[in-house]
Design goal:
Low-confidence stretches of chain A: none
CATH architecture of the largest domain in chain B: 3-Layer(aba) Sandwich
CATH topology of chain A: Rossmann fold
Number of domains of chain B: 2
Distance between the termini of chain B: 49 Å
Mean pLDDT of chain B: 96
Shape of chain B: globular
CATH architecture of chain A: 3-Layer(aba) Sandwich
CATH topology of the largest domain in chain B: Rossmann fold
Order of helices and strands of chain B: EHEHEHEHHEHEHEEEEHEEHEHEHH
Number of domains of chain A: 1
Largest interface: A-B, 43 and 41 residues
Structural class of chain B: alpha/beta
Oligomer: heterodimer
Structural class of chain A: alpha/beta
Mean pLDDT of chain A: 96
Largest sheet of chain B: 7 strands, mixed
CATH class of the largest domain in chain B: Alpha Beta
Shape of chain A: globular
CATH class of chain A: Alpha Beta
Number of helices of chain B: 12
Low-confidence stretches of chain B: none
Radius of gyration of chain B: 19 Å
Number of strands of chain B: 14
Distance between the termini of chain A: 39 Å
Amino acid sequence: MYREMVRIRHYEGRILQEYHADKTPAWDIGAGLIPGEMHLSAGQEPAAVGVCAHLRKGDAITAPHRPHHFALAHGVDMKAMTAEIYGRTSGLCQGKGGHMHLFDPENHFSCSGIIGQGYPVACGQAMAFKRRGTDHVAVAVAGEGAANQGAFHESLNLAAVWNLPVVFVIEDNDWAISVPRSHSTANTSNADRAAGYGMPGVRVENNDPDAIHEAAGAAIERARAGEGPSLLEIHTVRLWGHFEGDAQAYRGAELETLDERDPIPAYAARLIEAGDLTDDQVEQIKAEADAEVDAAVQFALGSPIPTADDALLHVFA
Amino acid sequence: MTTTETPQTADGTRRITTAKAMAEAIALEMRANPEVFVMGEDVGAYGGIFGSTTDLFAEFGADRVIDTPISETAFIGAGIGAAVEGMRPVVELMFIDFYGVCMDQITNHMAKIHYESGGAVNVPMVLMSATGAGYSDAAQHSQSLWGTFAHLPGIKVVAPSNPYDAKGLMASAIRDDNPVLYLFHKGAQGLVWMAKNPRSIAHVPEEAYTVPIGEAAVAREGSDVSIVTLSLSVQHSLDVAEELEGEGISVEVIDLRSLVPLDTETVLSSVAKTGKLLVVDEDYKSYGMTGEIAAIVAETDPTMLSKPMKRLAVPDVPIPYARTMEYGILPTRDKIAAAVRELAS
């Protein structure tokens, strides 16, 4: 899990660097080799690795607008994903989707940029898995802001009444863009909402990879065994802005303490102390991550740019 | 349980309602392909509020004909998810007017996933829904709205006018690898509890067949005036054409059947022949199908028209309740006939 967290962080760090590297003018969100909004996942890696460690080939994930950590942890090809983010024809979606709309049918991975709207689709994937008699599961991921969407509540009820193999994952990073959780949600744990739909709900505090791994394992195992859906809320942290370029003035003093909440150094320290990881291994893992990420960026940069006429393809199958 | 009429003619030729024809097409596809299933509100034992799933529950059971909670976002989204995994769900949205509570799943997901994925993911799903006015169900249960969905890229849109096409288009829709919005008019279903045109009950072959999506039909040949229309308005237009034949006016009726893709060739060749065009639509007038047909003619060759064309559609008001007002704004036979007479004069 540590290795995967480092891999993801190095990926996001490099995308951050590349995103800003050639923005001319710097204020123009649509400029540069990587145009458009960019929502990076730094700090939220434990959720992705803790959940995806239990998933098998054929299990599905629907991710929200901030998808890279779940995509990478679920096995989406880094090169094809990067080429998509660069808007190239060799990208996962041939440059039509971009970073919020990544689709990888081989890994049953998809995103929706609309808050909470991936939940119903995951229910349908779970329905297909169940109807076909497989033990695959679908995992629906969104932020705590999405838990106030109707789609979330409709999906929980549907999954419960049909006993679908779905795990609903809420990444609570305390902020729905600039609105703190306390201003949007009356209860303090979305896990409590699970009881209203007759399913188990667990909230994991402290962004702890091991605790997330354990709770996710129980929920996924339950779904796989045909015992129905679960809700898992993970209290995590958004180390960077909602999107790149977000000045985050609304976070105030919290910004100064974010480094202390970075889960990766904390997890490394714990593993080293337990004797499960050495300093040399840390350096090696970082070097390997850098090399893999660099190869993905080079692949993207070397890939063809779509033509204007390519926009007319793929409206219909 | 919804009941529909299934009269037999003296020679034993089977005549069935549009509703029964739809259900029969679904049943044939379900027998042929285990990946086809139906879900929606009251599609099970009830048979669909407008008869679209008549008898399916008895044959296929609750496992494949699934009553849903009143959660359109969840169950349409679930249809999309199942389709993404390669199943072929037929999902019913009870009234098209209910689109407001599930539009994100329809337009941002059902319609866009294939495109956004660069063609990597298909969504082979049928979304069927009841449209239309004429029985005082008022503003939230009487709209047509096909123009709204035809405007948004990524959804095929069909609207049959008769039992034969209803069965063939449903088979095509289920077999299509794209999302198909199948809009059936309540007034053309042949329901025992709603006034109907005799054209809503007709001979339909028992075996499976398809009507291609994207091909209009020349429902009646004529030489003086072309009426381009779809759905229930085709029935009205055919009635008018028969009536006006006695007045020496020869009316050609084009049944579009599909709005996406649109068969412009059949429309243009009819207009080229008659030089006079009336477009009839039960949807709202502005920014809709009537304007689209007008634009296609104008972009192709406006000199095809020997007289300015006419449009007959709902005059940009919500559908009112009281019968006088409702029929005041619908494209009735009388209004169609008057418009044709003006064009022919």
